[in-house]
Write a structure and sequence with these properties.
Elements lengths: L7 E5 L6 H14 L7 E5 L5 H8 L5 E4 L16 H6 L4 E4 L2 H6 L4 H13 L3 E6 L3 H5 L3 H12 L12 E4 L13 H19 L1 H6 L1 E5 L7 H5 L6 E4 L6 H8 L6
Parallel strand pairs: 1-2, 1-8, 2-3, 3-4, 4-5, 5-6, 6-7, 7-8
The structure holds 2-phosphoglycolic acid.
2-phosphoglycolic acid binds next to strand 8.
Length: about 260
Amino acid sequence: MNRVRKPYIAGNWKMNLDRSRALDLIKTIKGRLGDGNDREVAVFTPAVYLADVSAVAQGSPLGVGGQNLHWEQQGAFTGELSGKMLREVGADRVLIGHSERRHLFHEPDDWMGRKVRTALDCDLLPVLCIGETLDERSHNRTDRILKKQLESGLSAVQATETRRLTIAYEPVWAIGTGEVATPEQIAAAHALIRKWVGTKLGGDAAVTIRILYGGSVTPDNVKGIMASPDVDGVLVGGASLKPDTFLPIIEFETRA
Ligand code: PGA
C-alpha cells in the first residue's frame, strides 16, 4: 500500500506492568525495530517508569510518552504532572483526552485544547484521543460528539502544527471490550475527522495530520484496520503489553 503518511503504531500501557516487565518489554521492542524510516513506534508508559524506559529507548527511533499532563507549568495541583516534568524524564510525546481520563476521571472537553497547546509548547508530540460512547452512537450522535471533541481539542492549534499532532479515534465501546469497530464505522469516523481538519485548518493540514484507530486492536485485525484509506496507525492497549501480541501489530504488513 502506498501511504502518504508514515504509519504510527503506539502502545498505551495504562496502569499495567511493573518496572522489570516494562524494561524487558521495551528492550524486546527496541531489538526488533529497524531504523524507524518506514514506521513510527511509541509506548505510553506509567509516568513513574518514563525515566527508565526512555533510557533504554535512547539511541533508537522508539518514542516514549506520558499518558496525561496538566496545562500549567507548576503549582498546587496535587497528583498532576507538567509538560516540562515529562520532558525532563525523557518523554517526547503525550496522550491527551484518553477516554478513561474523560469518562472515569471526568476530565471535561474544554481542558483538552489547553493540554494540546501546552504539549506543543513543551515540545511534546500530543496524541489527542476522541471517541463516542455506545449510548451516543445508538442515538446517532457520533458525528456531533467527534466534532465537539475536535473543536475543543484543536482550539489553539495552528495549521502548521499538524505535523506534530496526532488524533486517535477510539470509540469508547471498543476499548478493552474485544469489540472492534467495523471497517465502515472506522472509515466514516476517520473521513469525518480528516474533513473537519481540512475545513478548519486547510488542505495541507488535512493531508499531513495522522489519524490512528484504537479499540481492541489485535494481531488478527490490525492488517484490515490499517488497510482503511484514512487510517494512519493504531493505538493499542491490552495487546501492547506482551511482545507476542505487540510485535506482530508493529509488523502489521506481514499478517495474513
Ligand atoms: P485496547 O485499548 O486496545 O485494550 O482496547 C485501547 C486504548 O485504550 O488506547
